[in-house]
Design brief:
Largest sheet: 5 strands, mixed
CATH class of the largest domain: Alpha Beta
CATH architecture of the largest domain: 2-Layer Sandwich
Helix content: 25-40%
CATH topology of the largest domain: GMP Synthetase, Chain A, domain 3
Number of helices: 13
Order of helices and strands: EHHEEEHEHEEEEEHHEEHHEHEEHHEHHE
CATH superfamily of the largest domain: K homology (KH) domain
Radius of gyration: 35 Å
Shape: elongated
Structural class: alpha+beta
């Protein structure tokens, strides 16, 4: 017996709920359900005919309708109908029109219910994955707060709310110890959409984390008054950040440090004591490289434009400070500026003819006060000179 088959009104109510609560478009669900019912019909009733499914939400019912094209000569009875037969149904039919005839099977209601359940479940899963992916892909290169859920040899898994992000062991800070349920700020490095759902990868060592932390703590950076030009970082140990303000009345370094160092101290605390040098950016490589070598004083910078390299001359007593422990200060300065930096002592420079007495008098640079927020520099850690 053909005719409309009941389709639970609860199904349509569930679709309304999913649209409201999950953000899944009801029309998308209905289209998917219609496609699944057509597939189920063809599979279960061995039909090759073109059919469509008519869903009646008000009645909570459905019909299967075959579709046949009106042709002059019928080659495939499942796809075509003659003009004569079509006009026997309705005299208004013309060639190339489509004739619909109900072919709803007697026991199709049960099959339809199964198909509906599968479709809704599948589409909910797919839609949720898509929603999550779209939400988190927009957070790439941003900071998010999460809670550590579990750990293994490859990753620390962090709950970001709707998804569990992966913090690779290679992206954790060496000076940090992690425990289950610890809250953590992480930098989103990559969001992938896979067949099993989205993958979110995060980092604690990425230079972008430091930049974003400054944006969060320094209103002048957030509103664009002060611009972060470059970041060089050896996570958990030391970092350098260069800043710039177009307005000459704005002190970019002071803005980042904050009153009594409160702004930068908040970032240092978040990074478990990582030392941070804040230097002023300049388009003049002489000034920029000199600033970047803070806290060391610089006597002279010789620029080799063709090699994008510099030779920096510092006082003898500040050679170790300029180079830093294991070359760290020079290495970070080079990474920050993008210039190669070869550091020479004043004595060595004079021996090589790179520095004259006239240079001592005329070419000493007047350096801006570049601040490095770490009390150890006030006392000049003896380890720095070893």
């Amino acid at each position: 017996m053909k005719g409309e088959k009941p389709l639970s009104k609860e199904l349509f109510q569930a679709m309304d709920y999913l649209e409201k609560e999950k953000g899944i478009d009801k029309e998308v669900l209905i289209e998917a359900l219609e496609a699944a019912l057509i597939s189920a019909y063809k599979k279960n009733f061995k039909s090759a005919a073109n059919v469509r499914v008519d869903l009646n939400e008000e009645k909570g019912s459905m019909r299967v309708l075959s579709q046949k094209k009106v042709v002059e000569e019928v080659e495939d009875p499942q796809q075509h109908i003659s003009l004569e037969d079509a006009r026997a149904i309705s005299p208004t039919y013309e060639i190339d029109d489509v004739v619909e005839e109900e072919v709803t099977p007697r026991d199709f209601g049960r099959i339809a219910a199964q198909a509906a359940k599968q479709v809704v479940t599948q589409r909910v899963r797919e839609a949720e994955r898509s929603i999550i992916y779209n939400e988190y892909v927009d957070r790439e290169e941003d900071i998010m707060n999460g809670t550590i859920q579990r750990m293994d040899n490859r990753f620390i898994y962090i709950n970001l709310g709707k998804i569990e992000a992966k913090l690779p062991q290679t992206e954790i800070m060496p000076n940090e110890k992690y425990e289950i349920h610890d809250r953590l700020k992480v930098y989103v490095t990559k969001v992938e959409n896979t067949s099993k759902g989205p993958n979110v990868f995060v980092s604690r060592t990425h230079p972008g984390l430091l930049k974003r932390l400054f944006e969060m703590e320094v209103p002048e950076i957030y509103d664009g008054t002060v611009e972060v030009k470059s970041v060089a970082r050896e996570a958990g140990d030391r970092s350098k950040i260069s800043v710039y303000a177009r307005d000459e009345e704005v002190d970019p370094v002071g803005s980042c440090v904050g009153q009594k160092g409160q702004r930068v101290q908040a970032i240092v605390d978040e990074l478990q004591g990582e030392k941070i040098d804040i230097v002023e950016w300049s388009d003049d490589p002489v000034v920029y490289v000199s600033n970047a070598l803070s806290p060391s004083k610089v006597i002279k910078v010789i620029v080799h434009e063709e090699d994008k390299a510099t030779t920096v001359i510092v006082p003898d007593y500040q050679l170790s400070l300029a180079i830093g422990k294991r070359g760290q200060n020079a290495r970070l300065a080079a990474k920050l500026t993008g210039w190669k930096i070869d550091i020479k002592s004043e004595t060595e420079a004079k021996e090589e003819g790179l520095l004259t007495d006239l240079d001592d008098k005329e070419n000493n640079l007047e350096f801006e006060d570049n601040l490095e927020y770490d009390s150890s520099f006030e006392e000049m850690d003896e380890d720095l000179f070893k």
